[in-house]
Specification:
Blueprint: H1 11-22, E1 25-26, H2 27-37, H3 46-58, E2 62-68, E3 74-80, H4 82-105
Helix pairs in contact: 1-2, 1-4
């Protein structure tokens, strides 16, 4: 089955917040983690990832600071803010409600 990058509106934000809840990471590291954890089904391109990171930073849910990556290159490392932790909790509750409703429609409960 080919990799899928089609995500429901807002799902990428949730995936980024959840990934950063584990530890701070740079953009490429976030994309790699999502890809690995999803068994390579979800592949997030730069054209989607970086606008989402900027949007989340603008909302105050993540913050960024410059640091050195594993290969000693300069990179922006993103981390979850207190507001971001609260938003992650809200997003997870919304996700549970949405997927529960979809399961009901698909008669999978």
């Amino acid at each position: 089955m080919p990799p899928s990058t089609d995500l429901l509106q807002g799902t990428l934000d949730l995936l980024i917040l959840k990934t950063l809840a584990l530890e701070p990471a740079h953009g490429w590291g976030i994309a790699q983690r999502i890809q690995q954890v999803s068994n390579h089904i979800l592949q997030i391109g730069q054209g989607s990832l970086y606008p989402a990171l900027h949007r989340l930073e603008y909302k105050g849910w993540i913050q960024a600071e410059w640091g050195a990556s594993e290969n000693n290159r300069r990179a922006r490392f993103y981390s979850l803010t207190r507001a971001g932790k609260k938003q992650l909790s809200t997003e997870l509750a919304n996700w549970d409600r949405l997927t529960g409703a979809i399961d009901l429609v698909l008669e999978r409960v």
